[in-house]
Amino acid sequence: MPEYTAPLREIDFALRLAGLDQVSALPGKEDATLDLVTAVLEEAGKFGAGVLAPLNGPADTIGNKLEAGVVTTVPGFRDAYSQFVEGGWNSVSFDAEFGGQGLPLLVGTAVGEIWHSANMAFGLCPMLTGGAVELLSRQGSPEQKETYLPKLISGEWTGTMCLTEPSAGSDLSGVRSKAVPEGDHYLISGQKIFISWGEHDLAENIIHMVLARLPGAPEGTKGISLFLVPKFLPGGGRNDLICSSIEHKMGLHGSPTCVLSFGDGAGAVGWLIGQENRGLEYMFIMMNNARLNVGLEGIAVAERAFQAARDYARERIQGRNSKGQPAAIIEHADVKRMLVTMKAETEALRTLCYFAAARIDVADHHPDAEIAKQARALVDILIPLVKAGGTEAGMRVSDTAIQVFGGMGFIEETGVAQYFRDVRVTAIYEGTNGIQSLDLAGRKTQRDGGATIRALLSIMKVEAEALAPAEPALARAQLDAIAALDVAVGHIVAVGKDGQKLSALAVPYLRLFVLVAGGWMMVRQAQAALAPLEGDDPAFLQARLGIARVYGEQILVQSSGLLAIIAGGAQSVLSFDAATL
Ligand SMILES: Cc1cc2nc3c(=O)[nH]c(=O)nc-3n(C[C@H](O)[C@H](O)[C@H](O)COP(=O)(O)OP(=O)(O)OC[C@H]3O[C@@H](n4cnc5c(N)ncnc54)[C@H](O)[C@@H]3O)c2cc1C
């Protein structure tokens, strides 16, 4: 049995729901027809299943080795990465100007899901390179673009994001790394921690995107600048930076998480990107891209964990069925319940993530400025939902997969525990899910008094009402959840400037929003299943409808509990004296 099979039919269906037809109508994106995209995904599926997935187990058990500043990656990763670059997989959705294939981000996202499902540790490396490409494409000077973009796009070089320091985690105002001007460049010094793929042997060069402060820069986040610091300098020669250690982690062992020391000698040579003191603003370009992709990692691991649990449940015989015969555990309703809810959560979040990617394509490429602006506003709301929702789905689904396996789920040899250990970090990095919730509740809800979100809820409501005659139960659950979210928006706006109260309510608020946004996608799934296109397989559509019903009955109804938490105002939390804990 293969370790992982790319769910190509589900991915195609999600692309359709996410609006592939609108995206392929955008200028310059006309090549992204369903036929071409299907062909690309088939090849990606073969590469993911055949090359990357078999390395996932060794990534976990062998991990990376550090010796004298040199990181040796997991056996097989180097060869897989060469094949990845030769196959053009690094460049799928980058601009053609510097060698990219120019396909929409939507397609790159679907392809990325396959890499993360097959091998999340491997997939993280090109994901970070993608963020660096986006950053340089938007903010780099013509010379920086010329020098770095072609090789980052091809994948011959890789990129990193160097934000975190011992005193700067969620709060980057604590960044202490320094940058001192020296002729046409800067000398960078300081320590960065937790840098994913900060050092490795997969590529010829590593291009670090580093946050640091100039002499005399203002305190706080307004005094942070962004620098490009390559491992090897353009004229040749090693830059003054070294990997001093790699972390021992609960999962994701195939991705080296590095402590990087910049400028232990004369200073690491770096170049300013954009303008001084605007580094954090630029880094947010990369972080938005990364947040979407981290949500995607969660969804991808959920898919893989689901597949493992489903296959095990079909083979494991235990107990008896209703006819008194020995039963595969999938025949027991509780196990079936676990599997269908895993599937429902995965499909809802997959479509939501693809939908967000499609809106980014529209925001970036639509010729009508007003439509592009509306798409951008929607993306701003969707990003924290996809990041936190996708990663929580990844954790929940991989946790449930362990339960389906029973005792064997707790035994490392079956491999299912790895999914849970690997995916756990996704709720932490790229802004913890707590920080995502604060972003949603504060900047994205309170700032305009909830107006943008309420406009979105009206659209969702119309779609749910249209489904009501055919699928009353799902439509009812979605309408109730929308009504709950509408009330919750009122509570969040009413919190005003009480930061502690907002902090106590933000996570339940985000969770409620994720339920509703997932419900929106499931309403669309049900509608599409009820209106087949030529060539659709009726059994496949029936399954999609069944999954949408499961989402309504088993997941969406949790909205009332979340509203109760928000309406309660978290008084018990706020009034509790933390000193007595
Ligand atoms: C495996 C791994 C890979 C990583 N890769 C990278 C990388 O490539 N580049 C990089 O720069 N960083 C990377 N990181 C760092 C990561 O982004 C940080 O760990 C993360 O941003 C959280 O920061 P912290 O660990 O300092 O936690 P803290 O900021 O100390 O947070 C601890 C807890 O407090 C909460 N909290 C903090 N502040 C607030 C607040 N104001 N209000 C409410 N709650 C709050 C958080 O939500 C969290 O629950 C990586 C981390 C790991 C573990």
What does this protein structure show overall?
With 581 residues, the chain is of the alpha+beta class. The chain has helices at residues 8-18, 20-23, 34-52, 56-61, 77-86, 105-118, 120-139, 142-154, 279-315, 333-365, 369-405, 416-423, 433-446, 451-467, 472-495, 499-530, 538-555, 559-568, 571-574; strands at 65-67, 70-72, 157-162, 178-182, 185-196, 205-212, 225-230, 241-246, 257-262, 268-272, 317-320, 326-328. The strands form 3 sheets. Strands 3, 4, 5, 6, 7, 8, 9 and 10 form an 8-stranded mixed beta sheet that branches. A two-stranded antiparallel sheet has the order 1-2. Strands 11-12 form a two-stranded antiparallel ribbon. It is globular, with a radius of gyration of 24 Å. It starts with 7 loop residues before the first helix and ends in a 7-residue tail after the last helix. The structure holds flavin-adenine dinucleotide. Flavin-adenine dinucleotide (FAD) binds at residues 160-164, 169-171, 194-196, 249, 252, 257, 425, 428-429, 431-432, 434-435, 503.
